[in-house]
Design brief:
By secondary structure, this protein is mainly beta. It has 2 domains: about 5-125, no CATH class; about 125-305, Galactose-binding lectin (Jelly Rolls, Sandwich), CATH 2.60.120. It has 2 helices and 17 strands. Strands 5, 7, 9, 11, 15 and 17 form a 6-stranded antiparallel β-sheet that branches. Strands 6-10-16-12-13 form a 5-stranded antiparallel β-sheet, with no helix packed on it. A 4-stranded mixed β-sheet has the order 1-2-4-3, sandwiched between helices. A hairpin with a 2-residue loop joins strand 3 and strand 4 (about 115-120). The radius of gyration is 19 Å and the shape is globular.
Amino acid sequence: MAVAVLLPDCDGDQTDFWSQIAYEAARLDPNREAFAASVRLFRANHNHFNTAVERGDRRFGYSPCFGETTNIMPRAEQEQFLIDYSSAFLDSVWGNTVHPAFDITLPVTDRLFGQNVQMNLSIPAAQRRVIIFPQAEEERTRNLLGGAIVSSERSGSMFCAPGETCLAGITLMGRFGYLRLSYSPRGSFRFDLPDRYRDASEYTMLHLRAVPDYTSTLNTVGTNARFAVVLTDINGNEDEVVVSDLSFQLIPAPAEYYAYDPFALYPASVRIPLSAFEVDRSQLASITLRAGDTSGTLLLSDLELLHDSIP
């Protein structure tokens, strides 16, 4: 069964965003035969989806939602978004047309039905070649295909299992598992591909989910995370695509002396067409995440190749 989760970013009631667990559980199912989707809707609150509830709500201490009239989405717009998103979901599951929000052949959009969003989309397991899917400590040094994970000098990683709380004072939507990648300027993390998995010519997209770690002092406050995805073939040819728009939110200052931070971490999906890389995709040697000219810390929850149909 297909799953869709809608997360109002300014929710003042369900501030732990437990609904995202439905997406994370579906994504982790190795036998899944339907897609699962999640959308984080900025400026939306809990009550404005409900016509019978007059009073709005918003997350305490969360600056993007301070103003009831200036920052919160008007009720009519929020209700219309729910109608449009639900209709698109149902049409994509049972109709003859797949809406772009649920189409893995397209890059992920940050605007949906006229609103700012972040999105996740996980497709049937048979269409995915999973490289990173953090569930065990071993994935800190070896990916799920059996290749090594190599960190550059002055870069390092930490593992956190799904459902665990490894960062104090901040909410992780859905309690996703992740590799915490900390790096110096131009630092990198290389994911090697064993011989039997080097032919990616039948795959169309590279998909990753990541979010800056707002609790890390390595990140530059007031910026967006920026890194390059680099593909290298066995002949040493490489090409990169720069990712610089993981979030509408600039990186906030970490919480200082108290265990409370109203910002929540949502690992946004990024899909990059493999055709964007001018390398021999039938003989890929590795996939690398390479930092720019600043240090930082990134939580990586997914790295995989996608097939647009079941092979």
